[in-house]
Write a structure and sequence with these properties.
The chain is α/β, with parallel strands linked by helices. The protein has eight helices and ten strands. The protein has one domain (about 1-210, about 210-215): Alpha-Beta Barrel (TIM Barrel), CATH 3.20.20.70.
Length: about 220
């Protein structure tokens, strides 16, 4: 039976909200979305609550310096991955600090309007490698069913990275990408708790994989 790793995206409103999501779910990984926080997050308590890999992500509007400082705090507390946007000016310097803490770096790019071209994806991968990224994550917005093929072709040719489309039309690439070499895919804790357009719940993803004969 094939397998697909699923990362649960948790809107980190408070530490207790994150801990509750950890208690109630058992995905392969957790993404802690710090841009949703309403109060400071106790990274040490979150780390102690699970042995599963943890990803620290912050897509908030704060300045690069503040974002990097917060992510480095999570990294120092034992988070396994830090997700930092390729557009972040502080990325090259932060890469060394993240690795120095023992964390891996996910260099990400999001396009909330279109699907990047294959050439643009290759350029993003090159940049990710150049700055020391361990995983290149490219997420666009599918405007047609055919766009799914662009994401899936990239991840099949560059296994170990992450690539899929957001939105309703991008759902096939969300589901199929880890089956074609993607590091993992993402799911939400519940309907209405989506951290990105087109994100299925963890239960829905597992049911889809069950029907496909996939271990997810």
């Amino acid at each position: 039976m094939s397998s697909a790793r699923i990362c649960l995206s948790v809107a980190a409103y408070t530490t207790e909200h994150v801990l509750s999501a950890i208690r109630l779910n058992s995905p392969d990984l957790y993404e802690v979305r710090l841009d949703y926080r309403r109060r400071p997050i106790d990274f040490m308590r979150v780390r102690a609550a699970t042995n599963a890999p943890l990803i620290a992500t912050d897509r908030g509007a704060q300045d690069d310096e503040g974002r990097v400082a917060l992510l480095l705090e999570a990294s120092a507390a034992g988070f396994d991955y830090v997700d930092l946007e390729v557009e972040c000016a502080a990325l090259p310097e932060a890469s060394g600090q993240i690795h120095g803490n023992g964390s891996r770096l996910i260099v990400s790019h999001h396009d909330y309007e279109l699907t990047p071209t294959s050439e643009e994806m290759e350029a993003l991968l090159d940049t990710s490698i150049r700055v020391g990224g361990d995983i290149c994550k490219i997420v666009g917005t599918a405007q047609s069913q055919g766009d799914n093929l662009v994401y899936l072709r990239f991840v099949a040719e560059n296994p170990g990275n992450i690539c899929f489309g957001m939105g309703r039309l991008g759902v096939p690439s969300r589901v199929m990408s880890p089956l074609l070499g993607g590091a993992f895919t993402y799911a939400s804790t519940a309907a209405g708790e989506e951290c990105a357009p087109g994100q299925l719940t963890l239960g829905q993803m597992r049911e889809v994989y069950r029907l496909m004969g996939v271990d997810g």
